[in-house]
Amino acid sequence: MIPHFTGTIPFVDEAQLQELDRLMTDTYGFNQVQIMENAGLNLAILAREIFLTNDPHHKKVLVVAGSGSNGGGVMVAARRLKNWGADVSLMLTTTRGKFRKETIYQFSILKNMGVQVVDEIPENCDLIIEGMSGIDHKPDSNTKTSKFIDMINESGMQVLSLDAPAGINLTTGKPDESTIKANCTMTLGLAKLGLFKLVASKYIGELYLADISIPKDLLDQMGIQVNGLSKAFAENTVVKINKVVVFNS
Questions:
Q1: Are the C-beta atoms of 226 and 205 separated by less than 8 Å?
Q2: What is the pTM of this model?
Q3: I need a surface site. Which of 2, 17, 181, 249 has the fewest CB within 10 A?
Q4: What is the gyration radius of the CA atoms in the chain, in angstroms?
Q5: How does strand 238-241 pair with strand 206-210?
């Protein structure tokens, strides 16, 4: 069972996230494939428990991936769920040539596993997992992405978003004209300020936080106090967190 963490969690904005990403790679030696693997495994675990009643066997799951790191993360989740027995298909917002190299790596694995690439939502889909946000935490700026967002919202299917629903600005919470309305959002590492803004509240759904192995020394270096969160992650690498609404200024 995924625990509910009720302690204090610090908010971070996009500038802090970019610095965090830089320090993880440049100072601590992480690479994006490692981060994708941590994100995708936690996402698959959350999907299995919350949406698939702990039994992915023969459940239909559509994974919608953008070209950036979140696209790679949802592809990792797709691989895990397929190995656990789910009927997984993949929808891509852009061509393989526009993927970042780590996302191409994840896509190649799925292709070798026989995961089908589709342009429509399969009938009787049990869950849609989306990672359409790009490296700047916004969705790919193309008409295909907008088309997919509208298609997903109109489908009435259950939706799980990685890091943030596609279209949400992680600092301001402001939605784009086309923005995913998620049933659940699993954000990575630290809570993002925009997810708690009033303007974003109807898009987020239930909010979860996943451990992606950010070193505590790094957080101390950035002056980020996580209090009891490390203890919560010792119990489970995914925790439910409260959505305390922050009014926009």
A1: no
A2: 0.94
A3: 249
A4: 17
A5: antiparallel
Distances (CA, A) of 169 to 67, 87, 180: 17, 32, 12
Q: Which two tokens stand for residue 208?
A: 């979860």
**Distance (Å, whole) CA 70 – CA 188:** 10
Q: Do 78 and 145 contact (CB within 8 A), yes or no?
A: no
- pLDDT tens-digit readout, 45-79: 999 999 999 999 999 999 999 988 999 999 999 99
Place of tokens 């009720």: 6
CATH (residue range 4-241): 3.40.50.10260
Per-residue pLDDT, 14: 85
Domain extent listing, the chain? 4-241
Task: Compute φ and ψ for 208, nearest 5 degrees.
Answer: -125, 155
Q: 3-class SS at 64?
A: strand
* The one-letter amino acid at 131: G
Strand partners, 162: 186
The per-residue b/e assignment along 24-48, b for 16 or more CB within 10 angstroms, e otherwise, is beeeeebebbebbbbbbbbbbbbbb
What residues contact residue 80 under an 8 Å CB cut-off, 6+ apart?
Answer: 40, 41, 44
The size of the chain, in residues, is 249
Confidence band for 226, pLDDT divided at 50, 70 and 90? confident
Tokens found for residue 137: 């935490």
Under DSSP, is residue 241 helix (H, G, I), strand (E, B) or coil?
Answer: strand
Contact between 113 and 82 under an 8 Å Cβ cutoff? The reply is yes
Q: Which two tokens stand for residue 145?
A: 């992405």
102 closest CA partner among 56, 138, 66: 66
